[in-house]
Amino acid sequence: MKKKVQDGRSTKFWLDNWIGDQALCNQFPRLFRLEENKESLVRDHWNDGWTWSWSRPIGRGITSTHLSNLLNLIDNVQLNEDKDEWVWTLDKSNKFVVKSTRQHIDSLLLPDSQPHTRWCRHIPKKVNIFLWRALRDRLPTRWNLSNKGIDIESILCPVCTSSPETVEHTLWTCSLATSIWLKTFQWLDLDFPSSLTIAEVLEDLDNRRFSKENKEIVAAIIGVIHQRAKVGSNP
C-alpha cells in the first residue's frame, strides 16, 4: 500500500509511504531526527515552495547532501485540491488483486538469491564469518553506518580518501586492496580478473584448480584484507 498525494492534508510527510520505496523517515533518517514536527503532513511543508522546521541549521556535509537528495526526490510533486488516497502498489491497476498479492507473498517466503554460504577450512573462523557478512553487505563500513543514520565525520575510505567506504571498495577497488590482489595473482601466475565485485572475485578463484600451497596463499591474503578492513574502520 502506498499513499497517493493530492492535497497533502491526510498524508504524513515523514511517516507515510508516499514517494520512493519507503517512508521518508527511513530514506533520510538524519533529516528526520532534525525535524521538529515528526508527524507533520505533506501540506504543512508546502507554501509556494517546500518549507522546513529543523531543530538546528543544516550546514555543509552529509546532512546537506541528504537534503539535496530529498529535494530532488520531491521536485516534481504538485499538490491540488483532491483528497489523498491509498493505492495498491502490487498491481498495475492500483487495485487489490489476489494473484499479484499471492505472487508477492511467495517472493517473500521462497528462498532468495543470497550468495551461498562459504566456509573454507584454510581460513580462520573469524575470517569466514567476515566474508559471509561482506557478501551480504553487512559490514560496518562508513557508507553503511551513514545510511543507518549514524553521525560520522566522513563516509570516505580512511585509507585512500578517494571514494566512499563501501564493502566493494574496502575489499576490491580501494588502491590498497587492489595492489594486494594484483600481487597475489602475479604470485600465483594468474591473469588479473576483470571482476567488478568481491563475490565475482571469489567465484573466479573457486573455478580455478589450486595446489594446497596456493590455497594457503589465497587464504592468507584474504586474512590480510580482513585486518585492513578492521584497521580502516577504526582510524
UniProtKB/TrEMBL annotation:
Q: Does the keyword Nucleotidyltransferase apply?
A: yes
What keyword terms does UniProt attach to this protein? Nucleotidyltransferase, RNA-directed DNA polymerase, Transferase
* Pfam families the record matches: zf-RVT
What domain of life does the UniProt record list for this protein's source?
Eukaryota
A single MF term (Gene Ontology): RNA-directed DNA polymerase activity
The question of whether Glycoprotein is a record keyword is answered with no
State the protein's name. RNA-directed DNA polymerase, eukaryota
**Organism from which the protein derives:** Artemisia annua (Sweet wormwood)
